[in-house]
UniProtKB/TrEMBL annotation:
<protein>
    <recommendedName>
        <fullName>UspA domain-containing protein</fullName>
    </recommendedName>
</protein>
<dbReference type="InterPro" id="IPR006016">
    <property type="entry name" value="UspA"/>
</dbReference>
<feature type="domain" description="UspA">
    <location>
        <begin position="4"/>
        <end position="140"/>
    </location>
</feature>
<dbReference type="Pfam" id="PF00582">
    <property type="entry name" value="Usp"/>
</dbReference>
<comment type="similarity">
    <text>Belongs to the universal stress protein A family.</text>
</comment>
<dbReference type="InterPro" id="IPR006015">
    <property type="entry name" value="Universal_stress_UspA"/>
</dbReference>
């Protein structure tokens, strides 16, 4: 089975990444991994036991809600997909999911929902590119 990891943050750029992935997924055995990464507040490590578990559970629930729109879109265009939510630093978690799935590639929007940190690429995009062990494709904003 071939996997393409597509980070989903709720932005239009992420939806365009799904569109682009369907154009290059020529193998019928390709599954899109729609991945949302939730960051935790910096002080989460100070929490213990139940409080920390509740915080992570809330993050996962929020991630699932964000993924729902992407899942609805994937259903509409009739592509095979899996949903995944991870908690942590986005660039690290995206690459870990790609490694876990032995992904063919990562396809993502060049920008996301965050503030404009970099003129060329968003900060998560930049981090993913530098940590990647598989090809990374960025879908430009001009495709919107």
């Amino acid at each position: 089975m071939n996997y393409i990891v597509i980070p989903i943050d709720g932005s239009e750029y992420a939806i365009k990444a799904i569109d682009y992935a369907t154009t290059i997924a020529t193998n019928a055995d390709t599954t899109l991994v729609l991945l949302n990464v939730q960051s935790t507040p910096e002080d989460v490590n100070q929490l213990e036991g139940t409080a920390k578990a509740q915080m992570e559970e809330a993050c996962i629930l929020e991630g699932k809600q964000i993924l729902q729109r992407a899942a609805n879109y994937a259903d509409k265009i009739n592509v095979k997909y899996e949903l995944a939510v991870r908690v942590g630093l986005a660039s690290i978690e995206i690459n870990q999911e790609a490694k876990k799935k032995n992904a063919t590639c990562i396809i993502m929007g060049s920008r996301g929902m965050g503030p404009d940190v970099s003129k060329a690429l968003g900060s998560v995009s930049h981090g993913v590119l530098h940590l990647a062990t598989c090809p990374v494709t960025f879908v430009p904003a001009s495709m919107l």
